[in-house]
């Protein structure tokens, strides 16, 4: 009987937390499941995933200064993988085997762990036996799968599920779009090829069908507008009609339809997600109810004593008073027992914070009650709470802005002290707990606190070699103070509040994009690392054969070199991630592509095309769909 | 009494057509109103607006070969304005004066007509009296107001009303966004100024606050990414964080929020529009009912005889049978009279096509009944209607595509004849009326028909001087044939059908964008025409002082000249409109801007910034909102 209370409590906890991992409802399995959900084990998992992803900085091609020998990174990797194995085996202990192996995410994790071990063994053999050829760690691009496929990455997995479900539905639009590009490519080839025109750099204009399609695909991303049109437009004004029709159709109409189709599917999937989450929650609560129920007049109910048993397991830190209060709230038909209908609300109730009144007194009130409640102190609190007090400090920020704009650094200590005093006043009045519950107060505290520390450090250390970097940090902090004024203007408050509310979801999409970035970055590093280097520009560097043209003679006369893009390369993970970001912003992506095409072959376009399709056309549009929906619901 | 029937009929007609112009409900005024709504007067108005807009091609700076002396364009303009005056005076005859002058659109038209006359007089005096300085036609940019402000441009006015109502609601987001740009601009200036870096062309990097803001605003449009980052990124990898944070915040988050806010407002406004349109319709129908009603058992109704009177005015071409049928449909409670509730449906019923059965026979059946109904003919019709017949011709299109791809023009006559035969078969089976009701049939007819005519013309005329242009037309038509295959693939049908359904609304937004383009083009021509010319490129042209650097020495060493953008100028209206389109596509707009800044001053940035804000940030986002909503409703 004690066991069934434990199982019921776990089911209620699942419903409260929105967990949907299945497990066997026996005492042993449930205990194992509770250990599995321990937050420390979860945080170690997050750490292990972060570490295995971060290894890319130390593995070849490593970030300069962070290189580690291959056995060192492999030992770290081994411990991460070992923890993953333990974790996944732990999950096996409380699940039926057929359920466990039917779950794709478990299978994916097992396969990736296996492939990574295989890759490590291959690499060690290759490294030590074969003396020629550069050994490749070919499994590294699979690492982000750990983020998605452990049950702990619920949010991000949901976003990926949404993408997976949306893609088939927008396929028709995408195929129609790509067919249109093929058709226009044929037309452009026929129209322009026989006129033998040239781009400004002398390269031929729409010379082959493949180039024709590529140029037009790039035009849909707008990256080569108007350059792609200019030779034809200069020849005959009417040729502009071709490009205008193409852009209107493929960019403005088709791309809007892609967004519309994605938005439509996103909303539908969201609705289904919510429905199934609610269903899952009710199912768990119903199971818990069945375990706890007692028949009273042939009606199954939960009695007061059963409820006490449940809450003593579910909320061990809370008092009996609290438990009775909860029961009173749930029992809205005043029968002194909980019907099934009553009980189904327990998870929602637990997610509402019922704060007990005694917590309201601030720390300073507890420590110095006489001082805190003294008339002078009360008068002071009244002043600080008055809106003129806030206006005064908003004015100080404005004056501070003026000083920054005019490059007057002398008064900075004065402003720092003034803002520090403001913080102390607010802290005194609001109390620590209340203070750090407010976003703008916390923001203020962090910015001014960091600035104070940095200023003191700078004062003590004196102007050292790194003076510029301390100054930069101070500068950023100084300008960030001005941000606070946005938070105090009423018309912006609702926008910023909305942004804060959807902040975690935005972070989820940040995670999704990171997964794509990391995967493509690793693949890109395997293909393109070491082909392009940044050595600087100028005559001296150009005269040295080794350093000229980004260290690769093939880039001579290329736009990539002329635009001084040598710094955009795949030579280590951070460079590669920045390059991914630049490609996501789209502009000049065809020039970046052309650089890597020039040092390899035209097949490299496939890599950049795939990245654009995945990240820009699909993920960014889903992100826009998410913002649209979130803003419409919140605003 | 006959008068009240006429008034009632007019009110019903208004409700059917969705007209909402107010007028006095007297016989004389209504007759005047009916004349005002005559479609010929309306088409003359459209023509006059088109002509006055087209005058920009002939006025200074005119399209080469289309120049007219100023008095010639002014005479044409005078007649257009005279017609506008007549039209607006006509509208005055059937409206109360206070209603007429309270209506903004009437006031705008009157003011624009007045200003244009004033401008014409000023110009004539300036031209003939003052001998120095170039006289300016300063009122020309107001011409698009005629499109919006005549009652006949209902659709486009509605779109503008939507924009006008949306802008105040998104102001907060836009201001917050612009303030963020200002703040980041300050930070960038502080961070980079003292490091004295340079762009690849040697120009200083974030040297002044104004330049700093400009560069960052351009970055939000992505047009100078990654160039704006490269100098700092090459100096220190960590500076990339600044740009990445900026782009994420200002581009991905703020711009998505702008779209969300616009979409939100668009939906709300659309709902209000529909509500008020429905209200207006019911109001007019209620008025009509009150004019026609008779009391029967103290209940106001419309009797059969009254209905006959109404329909004889409303639908003079239809028979009594048709009128009685309509009444029977409306009278859904079988009382043999129309209650008010019954009558309110009349406008909707009139918009449904009740085609009479006798129309179903095709023309060929009427002319040769024996031949058409002969067994062989019936067999033939069965074959043509069979899906294998369609598959056969789809296959022919695929083969045709192959021939085009392989540049085999020899078989083109064969394909033309084959497709012409297909058209004749379909025409025979479906009949003319049914044939031209189907989009893909009509499309086919136009494409093949034009190709046949062009091919015959080419055959007869022989390869003349303009051979290339005939060939181009044939080529386009040849490739367009392939489009038909999209229409016969099921998965694309629903997308294309949706596109066709929202086609007219898309055209409305095309009109809105044209209004912005025209206004900005005229203003741009007044400011920038003649400053940049296209003379070609190459050594010979660069050695001539007059033709070098787009004919303007200030463009030496500029990106504008290096990228060979001389053809993008304001030298006549068509060039200007193409330039507007390029600016709308955004890419390289800062280079285009820099060219015009170099030949004038940095103040020119204001023109390009305003264009970007109006067209890209507001109108294009509203267009996206429209597509989103339309697609979600239709798909
Ligand atoms: Na761009």
List the helices and strands and how they pair.
The structure is a homodimer of 635-residue chains.
Chain A: H1 2-17, H2 27-36, H3 39-54, H4 70-93, H5 97-102, H6 104-128, H7 144-149, H8 154-193, H9 209-220, H10 230-235, H11 239-292, E1 294-296, E2 299-301, H12 304-314, H13 320-330, H14 340-343, H15 346-351, H16 363-367, H17 369-372, H18 375-385, H19 387-405, H20 412-430, H21 432-437, H22 439-461, H23 467-488, H24 490-501, H25 503-528, H26 539-543, H27 548-551, H28 559-562, H29 573-585, H30 589-599, H31 604-634
Antiparallel strand pairs in A: 1-2
Helix pairs in contact in A: 1-2, 1-11, 1-12, 2-4, 3-4, 4-6, 8-9, 8-11, 8-25, 11-31, 12-13, 19-23, 20-22, 22-23, 25-29, 25-31
The complex binds sodium ion.
């Amino acid at each position: 009987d004690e066991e069934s209370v434990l199982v019921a409590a776990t089911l209620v906890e699942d419903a409260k937390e929105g967990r949907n991992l299945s497990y066997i409802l026996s005492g042993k399995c449930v205990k194992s499941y509770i250990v599995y959900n321990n937050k420390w084990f979860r945080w170690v998992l997050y750490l292990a995933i972060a570490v295995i992803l971060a290894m890319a900085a130390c593995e070849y091609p490593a970030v300069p200064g962070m290189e580690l020998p291959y056995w060192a990174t492999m030992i770290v990797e081994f411990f991460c993988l070992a923890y993953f194995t333990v974790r996944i085996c732990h999950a096996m202990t409380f699940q039926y085997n057929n359920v466990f192996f039917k779950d794709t995410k478990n299978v994916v994790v097992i396969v990736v762990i296996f492939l990574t071990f295989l890759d490590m063994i291959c690499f060690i053999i290759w490294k030590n036996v074969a003396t020629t050829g550069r050994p490749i760690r070919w499994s590294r691009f699979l690492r982000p799968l750990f983020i998605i496929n452990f049950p702990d990455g619920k949010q991000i997995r949901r976003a990926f599920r949404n993408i997976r479900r949306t893609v088939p539905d927008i396929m028709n639009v995408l195929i129609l779009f790509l067919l249109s590009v093929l058709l226009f490519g044929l037309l452009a080839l026929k129209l322009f090829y026989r006129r033998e025109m040239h781009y400004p750099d002398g390269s031929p204009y729409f010379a082959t069908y493949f180039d024709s399609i590529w140029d037009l695909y790039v035009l849909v991303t707008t990256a080569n507008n108007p350059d792609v049109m200019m030779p034809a437009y200069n020849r005959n004004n009417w040729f502009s009609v071709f490009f205008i029709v193409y852009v209107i159709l493929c960019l403005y109409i088709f791309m809007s339809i892609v967004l519309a189709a994605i938005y439509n599917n996103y909303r539908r999937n969201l609705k289904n997600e919510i429905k199934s989450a609610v269903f899952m929650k009710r199912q768990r609560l119903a199971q818990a109810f069945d375990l706890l129920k007692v028949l009273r007049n042939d009606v199954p109910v939960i009695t007061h004593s059963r409820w006490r048993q449940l809450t003593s397991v579910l909320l061990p830190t809370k008092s009996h008073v609290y438990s009775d209060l909860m029961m009173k709230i749930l029992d809205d038909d005043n029968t002194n027992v909980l019907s099934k209908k009553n009980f189904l609300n327990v998870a929602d109730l637990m997610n509402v914070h019922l704060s007990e009144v005694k917590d309201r007194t601030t720390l300073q009130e507890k420590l110095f009650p006489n001082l805190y409640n003294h008339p002078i102190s009360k008068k002071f609190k009244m002043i600080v709470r008055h809106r003129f007090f806030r206006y005064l400090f908003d004015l100080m920020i404005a004056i501070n802005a003026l000083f920054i704009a005019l490059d007057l650094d002398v008064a900075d200590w004065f402003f720092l002290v003034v803002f520090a005093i403001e913080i102390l006043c607010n802290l005194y009045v609001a109390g620590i707990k209340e203070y750090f519950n407010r976003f703008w107060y916390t923001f203020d505290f962090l910015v001014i606190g960091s600035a104070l520390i940095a200023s003191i450090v700078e004062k003590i250390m004196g102007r050292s070699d790194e003076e510029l970097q301390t100054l930069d940090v101070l500068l950023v902090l100084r300008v960030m103070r001005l941000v606070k004024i946005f938070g105090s203007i009423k018309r912006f408050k609702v926008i910023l509040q909305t942004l804060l509310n959807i902040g975690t979801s935005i972070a989820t999409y940040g995670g999704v994009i990171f997964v794509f970035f990391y995967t493509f970055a690793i693949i890109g590093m395997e293909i393109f690392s070491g082909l392009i280097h940044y050595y600087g520009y100028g005559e001296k560097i150009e005269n040295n054969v080794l350093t000229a043209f980004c260290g690769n003679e093939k880039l001579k006369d290329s736009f990539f070199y002329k635009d001084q893009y040598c710094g955009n390369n795949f030579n280590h993970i951070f460079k590669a991630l920045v390059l991914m970001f630049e490609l996501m912003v789209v502009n000049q992506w065809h020039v970046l592509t052309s650089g890597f095409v020039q040092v390899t072959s035209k097949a490299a376009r496939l890599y950049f095309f795939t990245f654009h399709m995945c990240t820009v056309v699909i993920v960014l549009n889903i992100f826009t769909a998410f913002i649209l929906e979130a803003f419409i619901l919140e605003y």
